[in-house]
């Protein structure tokens, strides 16, 4: 039986523990390892303390076959990765002449004075396979010790990623034989809650083996992660295609996008194909809806513009909502939403107009409770419509949910 490798990703740096920067390296590396069927069992972060780093390294050595360490290879006294590993392996540290020459050449070329501590970056373990750093100073290393593979990489993401792609992935290919691959597909849904979606899929989830099915609620709707294992790309394709078909057979009416696709990208593409345009009047959302659309490349062909009509004066003065509507129904009403959607469509000469008005909180407005939302939709040649909703959450959550509901309404319009 072929060996199943257990991997661990270990980041060194107090700045990670303090939350000053996010540990995006571990997430990125995990995705790469999945392609090689290498299971990641632990993500660990440890601060810049020699004893704690050494203790953490010892634990990793006892439980994992492949340990990937990022950070702690720089020139300062708190860069302790080498010293911590040496404390458990006793392998001599030597100066790597090619790396030292690169560092010296860089300082000569830039005219900066090289301080003595910069020599620290050229230190490597005597038995290491040294990985040349094309994007920075400190080299990476692969060290075999007591039937464990230790991989040391710089903490700077652009340096780490370049080294990982060029050196580590080919090495892992040889090490594992790429005997099994893992791939995930993300399916995105709107208009259905997590519990309702899980209920619809309970038979599939109960019987899941390979692929696995995992629902998850996000700020942008519900996602299902399908994860398959196979010996080849073709095998992965077949498993994931079959699983996706089974899921969509049950909840396909709510399906929006897949993997890196976004609902706004799909909306923009549909509008382009149908030669439609859109304009938005945003009170509650304050421009968030328009911002989502114009984040998509090519949105200028579709989005005519938007008006942030937060005050009553802008609603009546710029978008010409009749004062009678405001007096009788209020700014938070179906009538106001209808008028805003129709008028922004006409004024900006677009095919579709959408509007948002409501109460984000923390206080009631016009006797309407927090979370009351109205979205207006005006399509040229069709009857104007308004939709009422009641959302829960804090101020920003309500605004974000309103934007997502607006995107859902537009998506359902264009997909017909």
From TrEMBL:
Residues 8-175 form the MoaB/Mog domain. Pfam families: CinA, CinA_KH, MoCF_biosynth. The lineage of its organism: Bacteria, Bacillati, Bacillota, Bacilli, Bacillales. This is Putative competence-damage inducible protein. It comes from Oceanobacillus indicireducens. Belongs to the CinA family. InterPro entries: CinA (IPR050101), CinA-like_C (IPR036653), CinA_C (IPR008136), CinA_KH (IPR041424), Competence-induced_CinA (IPR008135), MoaB/Mog-like_dom_sf (IPR036425), MoaB/Mog_dom (IPR001453).
């Amino acid at each position: 039986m072929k060996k199943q490798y257990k991997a661990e990703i270990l980041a060194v740096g107090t700045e990670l523990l303090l939350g000053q920067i996010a540990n995006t390296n571990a997430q990125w590396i995990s995705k790469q390892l999945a392609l090689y069927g290498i299971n990641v069992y632990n993500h660990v972060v440890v601060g810049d303390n020699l004893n704690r780093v050494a203790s953490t390294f010892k634990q990793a050595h006892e439980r994992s076959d492949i340990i990937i360490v990022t950070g702690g290879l720089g020139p300062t006294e708190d860069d302790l990765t080498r010293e911590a590993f040496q404390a458990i392996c006793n392998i001599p540290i030597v100066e790597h002449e090619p790396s030292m020459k690169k560092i010296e050449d860089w300082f000569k070329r830039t005219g900066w004075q090289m301080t003595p501590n910069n020599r620290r970056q050229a230190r490597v373990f005597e038995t290491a396979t040294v990985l040349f750093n094309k994007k920075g100073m400190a080299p990476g290393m692969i060290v075999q010790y007591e039937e464990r593979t230790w991989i040391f990489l710089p903490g700077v993401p652009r340096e780490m990623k370049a080294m990982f792609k060029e050196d580590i992935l080919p090495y892992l290919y040889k090490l594992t034989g790429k005997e099994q691959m893992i791939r995930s597909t993300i399916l995105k849904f709107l208009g259905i809650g997590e519990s309702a979606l899980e209920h619809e899929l309970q038979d599939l989830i109960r019987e899941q083996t390979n692929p696995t099915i995992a629902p998850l609620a996000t700020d942008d709707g519900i996602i299902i992660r399908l994860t398959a294992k196979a010996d080849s790309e073709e095998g992965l394709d077949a498993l994931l295609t079959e699983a996706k078909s089974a899921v969509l057979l049950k909840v396909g009416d709510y399906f929006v996008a897949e993997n890196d696709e976004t609902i706004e990208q799909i909306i923009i593409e549909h509008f382009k194909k149908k030669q439609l345009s859109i304009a938005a009047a945003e009170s509650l959302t304050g421009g968030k809806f328009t911002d989502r659309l114009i984040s998509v490349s090519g949105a200028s062909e579709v989005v005519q513009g938007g008006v942030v009509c937060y005050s009553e004066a802008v609603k009546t003065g710029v978008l010409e909502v009749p004062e009678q509507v405001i007096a009788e129904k209020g700014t938070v009403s179906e009538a106001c939403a209808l008028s805003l959607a129709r008028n922004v469509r006409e004024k900006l000469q677009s095919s579709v107009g959408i509007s948002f008005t409501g109460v984000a909180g923390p206080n009631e407005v016009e006797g309407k409770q927090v979370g009351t939302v109205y979205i207006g939709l005006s399509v040229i040649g069709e009857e104007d419509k308004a939709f009422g909703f009641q959302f829960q959450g804090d101020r920003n959550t309500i605004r974000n949910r309103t934007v997502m509901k607006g995107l859902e309404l537009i998506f359902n319009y264009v997909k017909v």
